[in-house]
Automatic annotation (TrEMBL):
<dbReference type="Pfam" id="PF14361">
    <property type="entry name" value="RsbRD_N"/>
</dbReference>
<feature type="compositionally biased region" description="Polar residues">
    <location>
        <begin position="182"/>
        <end position="194"/>
    </location>
</feature>
<dbReference type="InterPro" id="IPR025751">
    <property type="entry name" value="RsbRD_N_dom"/>
</dbReference>
<protein>
    <recommendedName>
        <fullName>RsbT co-antagonist protein RsbRD N-terminal domain-containing protein</fullName>
    </recommendedName>
</protein>
<feature type="compositionally biased region" description="Low complexity">
    <location>
        <begin position="206"/>
        <end position="216"/>
    </location>
</feature>
<feature type="domain" description="RsbT co-antagonist protein RsbRD N-terminal">
    <location>
        <begin position="10"/>
        <end position="143"/>
    </location>
</feature>
<feature type="region of interest" description="Disordered">
    <location>
        <begin position="182"/>
        <end position="225"/>
    </location>
</feature>
């Protein structure tokens, strides 16, 4: 085990070369230095655990941080998990090379080593999914705020229109259908005297929006039109709208 720890630089370098062949890593923003340092630290912790040292809590924290970082770097989860599971063959090869009797001498430890790598993999995945959830929650809050501002009757700020378009991934000018889920206890009626919330608790709105300050459509002119409407801002909206 001491020999394996002494050989970490070589093992980590070989690992990085192999990871770069995976889809999602070949042209990713993850640098070689990042990959090398991550591999070196992870392998060290795993080797020390195999040696009998208590590194469980440290490995869990480090593994989850890897997942969060890779999520921010937009590495696909499938590619990330494949890269993480590659720790096992590198550990096994190193142990076999530095153990008298080779692989057969450590065959009784294969399940334990695999479980250690799988624990690491699970922690990486947990960190990744937690980060994705956090980012999505922040984006959802931002989108909801901008959408409420955009659909307010008093919205005249072209900068708001441009900001909303960017946050929602829409062109500044276009058409879309907005579906607003309302409180069932609130029962506004449309021009036909029918409550738009009665069937499904949804209201549909129409507005025309332009990012041009000189345009007569700069004002978000909100009109309730029963169950179907169009609006100029973009061709799609996440969740709350569908293309016309």
């Amino acid at each position: 085990m001491t020999a394996c720890l002494a050989d970490l630089e070589t093992i980590a370098t070989a690992y990085v070369r192999q990871v770069r062949t995976l889809t999602g890593y070949a042209n990713s923003v993850v640098s070689d230095d990042d990959l090398h340092q991550t591999a070196r630290t992870t392998l060290r912790l795993l080797f020390e655990m195999i040696k009998g040292e208590d590194r469980l809590a440290e490995l869990q924290e480090y593994s989850e941080n890897i997942g969060r970082r890779r999520a921010r770097q937009q590495v696909p989860l499938e590619s990330l998990l494949r890269a993480v599971r590659m720790d096992f063959p590198f550990i096994w090869e190193a142990l076999s090379a530095h153990t008298a009797g080779g692989a057969s001498a450590i065959s009784d430890s294969v399940v334990w080593i695999w479980n250690a790598v799988e624990r690491h993999t699970t922690n990486v995945q947990t960190g990744y999914l937690d980060e994705i959830s956090r980012v999505n929650a922040e984006l959802e809050l931002e989108r909801n705020f901008l959408l409420r501002q955009l659909l307010s009757e008093g919205s005249r700020d072209p900068q708001l229109h441009r900001q909303a378009a960017a946050a929602l991934g829409l062109p500044a000018d276009g058409e879309f259908v907005v579906v607003v889920s309302g409180d069932q206890s609130s029962t506004p009626t449309n021009s036909h005297g029918r409550s738009p919330t009665a069937p499904l608790g949804h209201r549909y709105y129409s507005s025309k929006v332009s990012s041009s300050p000189s345009s007569p459509q700069t004002r978000c002119n909100l009109r309730q039109r029963g169950f179907c409407s169009t609006s100029r801002l973009g061709s799609r909206l996440p969740r709350a709208a569908s293309p016309r």
